[in-house]
Design a protein that fits this description.
heterodimer, A: alpha/beta, TIM Barrel, 9-stranded mixed sheet, 13 helices, 9 strands, B: alpha+beta, Arc Repressor Mutant, subunit A, 3-stranded antiparallel sheet, two-stranded antiparallel sheet, 5 strands, globular, Radical_SAM_PqqE_MftC-like (chain A)
Chain lengths: 368, 93
C-alpha cells in the first residue's frame, strides 16, 4: 500500500433517519434505521471528540431531520467547544421561534435549509407534508433575521427543473448567502425513483443556463453551488473527493461510512463507532481501505490520466449500474458498462411514473 | 461589484466565517459555510489583524511597519485582497 492517508476534513453526522417529510429523492438508504437503534448523546459526544482530534474541521448535522433529536443543541454546543464549524442540514419544518434561538445560543455557525420546490403545491406533493412550505419560509425568515448565514438547497428533478430561475430569485429575496441547485443523485430513494425524477437533456441545459445567468446577476451577493446529474456527463464525479480521503459519514446507528450510500457495498463489514475508534476505522478498516487511492482500480481507470482527479468516480454508482462496486463508474464514456447509462436515458418514460415515497418498512417505526 | 473600501473602513469577518488555526495540518484556514479555504501566508497575516475594530488603514500601517515595506505598495495589495474576500463573502466592511 503506497497511498498517503490524509486526515479527514469533514464529518456528516446523520443523527436520525426520522423525518416529517417523505421526499422520493432522499439520499438515505431504503432500509431506514428505527429510533431504538440510534446512537446515544454520549456516543455522539465521543464521535465529535475523536473527529476533532483527527483533524476534522466541519461537522454537518444531518438526518433524516436532525431537529427530531432533542439533544441537537447539546451536540452543537459540544462541537463548537472543540473548534468544529457547525452546520445544520434541515428541512426547516421543526425550526421555529422556540427552537431556533436555542441553536443560536449553542453557537451554531450555519444552516442549510432544503426546499422541495418554489411552487407550494408541488413542494408539498413531493415532501408529502401539508403546510410544510409555510413552515420552511418562516424558518428562512427567522434565520435571515438573526443574521446567521443561510444556504438554501433545492434538489432538482423533472417536475421542478423548469422553475430554477424562480428558485434563484427567491433565494436572494429570502436573504440566503448561498444556494445549492443540486440535481438529484441516484442513490437510495433517488435510485428507486429514477424514472420519475430524471430530467430531460433539454431541462438540464435550461437549468445550466439559468444558473449561469444568476451567477452574473447576483455576483458577490449569492454563491451558487451547481450539481449536475452525472448520467448526462462524459466523465464521472470525484465522488466524496476520493474514497476515504476527506470525508466520514456516521449513520444513525453508528456505522462509519466513506459516503452516505456505502451501506449498499456487499461482502464487507461495516465498522461501528460503538466497537472501534474512529481513527482506527479511518486508517485500517477494510471498508475504508478497499477503494482508497488508485491500487484497487481496474482498467481503463488504472492507466487513465484522470485517475487522481475523479478517483474512478462513484463506487456505489458502479455497484448500482454495473453490479460491481470495483468497476469503473459507468457514467464515464470510457467505461465498459457505459451503455447502461445511455440506455437509462434513452428509455425515460414520456410520462413520469408515480413516486415511491420514502417510508419506514414497518409503520410502527415511522413516528416518534 | 464596487466595495466602496477606504482607509477608514472597519473590516470584519462576515457572520459564520472565521480564521482558525488547523493544528493537525499546521496551517491557517478560513472556516466558511460548508467550505474551508486555505489563505496564502500573506493573506493569513492580513486576516489575523481583522478583528472588527481595526480600519483598513490601521491594518496596512501595521503590516508596512512589521515587514518594513512602503505603505502605498502594501496598501494597494491589501486593498485588492480585501475587495476579493468581500466579493467571496468572507469579509465585510
Amino acid at each position: 500500500m503506497t497511498e498517503t492517508i490524509l486526515s479527514p476534513m469533514s464529518l456528516l453526522a446523520e443523527l436520525t433517519h426520522r423525518c416529517p417529510l417523505q421526499c422520493p429523492y432522499c439520499s438515505n438508504p431504503l432500509a431506514l434505521e428505527p429510533r431504538r437503534n440510534e446512537l446515544s448523546t454520549q456516543d455522539w459526544i465521543s464521535v465529535l471528540d475523536q473527529a476533532a482530534e483527527m483533524g476534522v474541521l466541519q461537522v454537518h448535522f444531518s438526518g433524516g431531520e436532525p431537529m427530531s433529536r432533542p439533544d441537537l443543541p447539546d451536540l452543537i454546543r459540544h462541537a463548537v467547544g472543540l473548534g468544529l464549524y457547525t452546520n445544520l442540514i434541515t428541512s426547516g419544518v421543526l425550526l421555529n421561534e422556540k427552537t431556533f434561538p436555542v441553536l443560536v445560543d449553542a453557537g451554531l455557525d450555519h444552516v442549510q435549509l432544503s426546499f422541495q420546490d418554489i411552487d407550494t403545491a408541488n413542494a408539498e406533493h413531493v415532501g408529502g407534508m401539508k403546510g410544510a412550505q409555510a413552515r420552511k419560509l418562516e424558518a428562512a425568515r427567522l434565520i435571515a433575521a438573526d443574521g446567521m448565514p443561510l444556504t438554501l438547497n433545492f434538489v432538482i428533478y423533472r417536475e421542478n427543473a423548469d422553475r430554477v430561475p424562480q428558485m434563484l430569485d427567491a433565494a436572494v429575496e429570502m436573504g440566503a448567502r448561498r444556494v445549492e441547485i443540486a440535481h438529484t443523485q441516484y442513490y437510495g430513494w433517488g435510485l428507486a425513483n429514477r424514472e420519475a425524477l430524471m430530467p430531460t437533456a433539454a431541462q438540464l441545459e435550461q437549468t445550466t443556463q439559468a444558473v449561469e445567468a444568476a451567477r452574473q446577476k447576483y455576483a458577490g451577493r449569492l454563491t451558487i453551488d451547481y450539481v449536475t446529474p452525472d448520467y448526462y456527463a462524459d466523465r464521472p464525479k470525484p465522488c466524496m473527493g476520493g474514497w476515504g480521503r476527506r470525508f466520514i459519514n456516521i449513520s444513525p446507528s453508528g456505522r462509519v461510512l466513506p459516503c452516505h450510500a456505502a451501506e449498499t457495498i456487499p461482502n464487507v463489514a461495516f465498522p461501528d463507532v460503538r466497537h472501534d475508534t474512529l481513527a482506527h476505522i479511518w486508517r485500517d478498516s477494510p471498508l475504508f481501505t478497499m477503494f482508497r487511492g488508485t491500487d484497487w482500480m481496474p482498467q481503463p481507470c488504472r492507466s487513465c490520466d484522470q485517475r487522481e482527479k475523479d478517483w474512478g468516480g462513484c463506487r456505489c454508482q458502479a455497484l448500482a449500474l454495473a453490479g460491481n462496486a470495483a468497476a469503473t463508474d459507468p457514467v464515464c464514456s470510457r467505461a465498459p458498462d457505459h451503455d447502461r447509462v445511455v440506455r437509462v436515458l434513452e428509455t425515460l418514460p414520456a410520462e413520469p411514473p408515480p413516486f415511491r415515497y420514502r417510508r419506514y418498512a414497518r409503520a410502527t417505526d415511522e413516528v416518534g | 461589484m464596487t466595495t466602496g473600501l477606504t482607509d477608514d473602513s472597519v473590516i470584519r469577518f462576515a457572520r459564520g466565517v472565521r480564521l482558525q488555526h488547523d493544528r493537525v495540518r499546521e496551517r491557517w484556514i478560513i472556516q466558511a459555510p460548508e467550505r474551508a479555504f486555505i489563505p496564502d501566508p500573506i493573506a493569513a497575516e492580513v486576516l489575523k489583524l481583522v478583528d472588527g475594530t481595526r480600519t483598513l488603514g490601521q491594518i496596512v500601517a501595521d503590516l508596512a511597519n512589521r515587514f518594513a515595506a512602503p505603505v502605498d505598495v502594501i496598501g494597494r495589495d491589501v486593498h485588492v485582497m480585501v475587495s476579493d474576500l468581500m466579493t467571496r463573502q468572507v469579509l465585510v466592511a
